[in-house]
Every structure is written in structure tokens, then in C-alpha cells.
Amino acid sequence: MLRYPRLIPTLLASALLAGLIGAAPASASHSQPNFFEASNTLLNASTRTRTFQQLQYLGVKALRVELSWYGVAPGHAAATRPSFDATNPAAYDWSAYDPVLAEAQRLGWQVLLTVTSPVPRWATSNRKAPYVTRPDDRDFQEFMTAVARHFGSKVSFYSIWNEPNHPAFLLPQFNANGSPASPRIYRGLFQAGYAGLQAAGVPQPKVLFGETAPTGYDRVSRSIGTLHDVAPLAFLREALCLNTHYVKSRSCGPLQMAGYAHHAYTIAVPPTFVTAGADNVTIGVLSRLSGALDRAAGAGAIPAHLPIYLTEFGVQSLPNKYLGVPVSVQAEYDAMAEHIAWANPRVAAFSQYLLRDDPTGGAPGSSVRGGTVGFQTGLEYVSGKAKPLYRGWSVPLTVTKVGGSVSLWGLVRPAIGPTTVTVLVQLTQTGHFRTLRTVSTDSLGYWGFRSSGHARYWRVRWTSPTGIKYEGPPIKAF
Fold it and tell me: From edge to edge, which strands make up the β-sheet containing 405-411?
């Protein structure tokens, strides 16, 4: 539950402010690239230019792009594969993606390219919509060769499949007896995709494994049905041929990968929430994933000390009636989640999913039955109107209660070197914001310090070297 800081009587305001200013700085951790995914506007030619302008203003320096195999393949709706050289990039239609990756390269941004379903009808085992059932490994290997030959140096990292433990993206998830089926299907796709990249002349591809959704089941019963997610750690074990004690089958060799990708979404609660189920991994329980990776490495299934890439994340806001929080809380929770990731030395990258909200959809899970699930994780409403997160994302701020004091942490995302940021505080319900401290950031834009006392709200203000002004929304202490 939210905890609201108590109000400070006006008569104590001046003395309190003096006490706050005398606090010592907090220590820093590490950098983490933040991949921004705005496919619903970047892949649309009519909104692409403005979207890139917005992303530059926000301080974006890296993109995640999901590449649909179905969307670019020749004869994608045909039951029979057309006659063509599937390793030849000229056979595909890359027109929706080329302008995005070209502009990212011009801006010097990293690109994570997630190659995923739906797949061409002719590459599925049952030739039936939604074209995600048992994709053919050989076809996928040839496609990945074409992908690498076409995009080349425009891609910094590849990732194979989006949420392969989710039935909207890969089927079947479970066998008839209730045991997981998707992990071994995914293992074959990953090996094929990796081999395809090598065939394109990339000897040691930077490929992320996983891209797993945060929750699910280890097994399902007949009453539950098979159209459910496999829990991410159960998926990880099965895909790596590990039993529940992390002992590897002798029939499976180790897999090479550059990192493990995961989508650590949570529900409408603070990001520190500890979700039930030992094999589920939301943002508040990342140690479950790092522990599982260490055990898998100890079994010889993957490289040791594998970094974690949180490649898709966002906080749902209203009007999502199932998972949404108030938009003011969205800005607070989003910064808290980024702080959690930044403080974890195992996390190599964080992410923001969506600039603009999707249209509202049905309840979670409805997508596997032909419905739509809209994400309201954006910085803007579907209308394009800005939420508080639009102001807060460039200058995220967290205020954490520590005994009788508070610890402040923040980032000036658009900065390209050390800078100074002004921290403001509102001491009473009716008082104005006043300067608490002007603080210097490190070379990556991060800053932090400890303050004594209480206040109602905090916010930050920063002006870029070119005169662009940024001011975050009011933030409460948690």
C-alpha cells in the first residue's frame, strides 16, 4: 500500500529545509543502457519523424525493435513455401524497418533487434493462424542469415523470440499431460537462429536468450487448460535441459549467449512487491533469476556470470482497469523500478515499453483466444496527450524512507556528461517548491544523496546546455 509522508507544520519549514540541505551524498552503482521500444509509432511512416524527435528530447540512446518474420517474408500467407533463396535478403520486404534502423545508426543509438513471431504460414507445423505453432528450425535458420546479412552493423544485439513462454507468441506451451512443451521448441529455434547468424559471417553473435514473460505455471492440469504461460524459471530449466535440481541432461550440450533477456512486469503494486511462485520473476524478485542463472552455469548449461537484460518493462496506468495505477503513481513506480535495476550489478540494461499507449483491450490472457490486450505503459495516452511520466522519464527520481531520513536517487537521462541538477522540495501542503540542493551528477548523469527530515513532495529541474528545460512531476517518499 502507498504510504504518504506526514505534513510538516508551516512554522517548522525553514528549520527543516536547513536540515535537509546538510545531508551526505549517496554512492553510485553502474551504468545501464535503457532500450526504448516505440514500435507502434516508429514503424508507422506517418508518425516516425515526430517520434524520433520526441525520443531525442527524452534522452533515448538505444532502441528495441521487434522484427516480425511473417511481416517481411515472401508468400507469408501461403500454405506452401514459395521457391526462393531464404538466405538472400533481397527476397524480403524490409521497408517498414529500414528507415528506423538507418535513423538509429545515424544518431549513434544501439539497436536490440528481437526476431519473433508470427511466422510465415508455410513455416508452421499446422499451417493455421495465429502462425506461432512449432516454427520450422531450418526455415528460421535461413531467415536469420538473411536478417544479419541485411542489417549488419546497424544491430548491436540480437534476441531470439519475444516471450516464448507465452501462448500468444509460441505454441504449444504445454503438452497434453500438462508438462511444458515450449521450452524445447524454443531451444531448437535459438540454436537455429544462432547458427543462422554465424552463417551470415558473424562468428560470435551477441545474442540474448529468453525474452521471457514474468509469470506462469510449472505444469497445468486438465481443468486449467494448456493456453497459459510457462513460468519463466521452469521455462529456463527445460530449455537448458535441467531438472528441478538444476542437473543437466547428458544429451544436451551448453548454449552460447551474450545474456538472458527478461520482461519483469509486475501488477498494480509497488515494484518492490514479492510475487508468489518460486519460478515467477517480477522486478521485485530479480534475485530468483540471477540465482537460477548461476545454478545453470554451475551445471555447464550456459556461460558463467551471465548478465540480465530487462528488455521490456513498463508500469500500467489508468485507463487500464485490470492492471493500471493512477498516472501520478505510474511516474513514481517507473522510477522505483529503474532504481531497483540500476542497483543490481547483474542487470546490464533496462527498458521502457511504449511511448504512446495502445487502445484499451480485454483482460490479461484474452490475446490467446483471439482478443487484444492493450498496454497502457506509455508516456502518453493513446490520444497523444502527455502523462506525468512524460516529464518524469527524462529525469527519474526516487525518494526512499530510511529511518528518520530519506535517500534520493536520480538520473539526468539526456545528459552526455557530468552536469548539475536542482532538487526541489515542497514542505507543506500549501507551500511552494523551493530549492533543496543543486547536485552534481556523475559522467553518466546519475546522482544521489541522503537528507534528514520530512517533506510532502520532491521534484527535479534541469536545463540542458542548449537551454531546453526539464522538470519532473512531484514525487512522494516511499
Answer: 397-402, 405-411, 446-452
Can the peptide bond before residue 203 be classed as cis, meaning omega within 30 degrees of 0?
Answer: no
Q: Show the cell assigned to 423.
A: 532538487
The distance from CA 404 to its chain's CA centroid, rounded to whole angstroms, is: 34
Q: Where are the alpha helices (DSSP H) in 59-156?
A: 69-72, 98-107, 137-151
Which H/E stretch holds residue 289? helix 286-298
Q: CA torsion angle for 104, 108, 112, 116 (degrees, to 10)?
A: 20
Chain centre distance of CA 291: 20
Q: Is 74 exposed, middle or buried (0-12, 13-18, 19+ CB in 10 A)?
A: middle
As beta bridge partners, residue 435 has 424
Q: Which domains are delineated in the chain?
A: 10-26+398-471 (2.60.40), 34-393 (3.20.20.80)
Tell me how crowded residue 141 is: count the other CB atoms within 10 A of its CB: 22
Residues 6 or more apart whose CB falls under 8 angstroms from that of 352 comprise 34, 35, 36, 37, 313, 314, 334, 377, 379, 393
Report which secondary-structure segment, H or E, holds 296.
helix 286-298
Give the model confidence (pLDDT) of 26-85 as tens digits: 344 467 889 999 998 999 999 999 999 999 999 999 999 999 999 999 999 999 999 999
Q: Cα torsion at 64, 65, 69, 73 (round to 10°)?
A: -150
